[in-house]
Amino acid sequence: MVAVVTAFSRMAEPESQCIARALRRRDSEFIGRMVSRYHYRLLRYLVYWTSRREQAEDLVQETWLRVLERAGQYNGRLRFEPWLFSIARNLAIDYLRKQQTATHRMCREDEAGLNLAATDFESPFFAAARSEDAKRIAAALGALEPIYREALLLRFQEELSLAEIAQVAGAPISTVSSRIHRGLSMLEASLGGGDDAA
Amino acid sequence: MPLENHEKARLLLDRSLVEGISPEDRLWLDAHVGQCAECARYGDLSARAVRALDWFALELDPAAALRVESVVRSRAEGMRSAESRAKSLWIGTAVAIFLTLAGSVVTWRPVALLASQWNLPSRVSQIVFVAFWLLPSLLLALLPLFRRKLLGEDSDSHGQTV
Lengths: 198, 162
Hints:
With 198 residues, chain A is mostly helical. Chain A has helices at 2-12, 15-25, 28-50, 53-69, 80-111, 124-128, 132-143, 146-157, 162-169, 173-197.
């Protein structure tokens, strides 16, 4: 009887509370299922940030390890996704900062005559584009700054509310809103330009 | 049609995609877009821009996903067992300290009796009791907590490394 009541109360419990409890208990079965469930969305979010598939995959793993370390900070009162994405975001920004520093260093070494090879990679946006139209959008997405790509992804693909996006980005709602508008207008410009050309 | 109507329509079209708009605004917008080809085209373009985001689909590498899952699961298990060990250690230490103090209370009586039979000053017997009974017992009780530091072990060596 007690087991039935416990099972029923768990069913009635909001999902975010279940996640918070599982994280605190280090429930590896549950955490494994969550990793698998959020893998694609987290990877896509990190690709939007870094524009690099390999680094995004590494960051997915780092994000989950950071989630485990900070499990005590998630209390389950808010949705899990914004918290997860905010951790991923911080890691992506750290990665981009390190990369910028490394690029500056490489430039200085290049200037000093060390002749380092330039890094060459295919944008994942272009890799996914199969039609001409898609390539045009890929170019537009690739040209957008990560903060605009992030805002568009979180609003239109993750379907987070403006308040939740503000929580992820650590920015006021008005800023988030203007980022979405600006990102959209850039995409519209590229689509409109394509139509005009056609 | 007044120019401000087109501006209002475009503003509402943008807002309908991002923040959402009120039912009254929606009615006004639908009526306007029904009559204005230019604003209808703008609305279509905005909707296409949003839909354009959907074409971007990553191909998942199942092996990579499994690898991440396995690493995270094993880290979670490692942390769980490390935390369980730490919990046991703290409980063990608390019990050891309690037994030390309780044992000291019980042992003090025969020690004090012996000291009075040997005519030792009570100050001396107290110092001897603390130095040769209480302090060593307490140090032994606390020893497991500082074992890693004393042995120079890295706290990250038990499944804690990234």
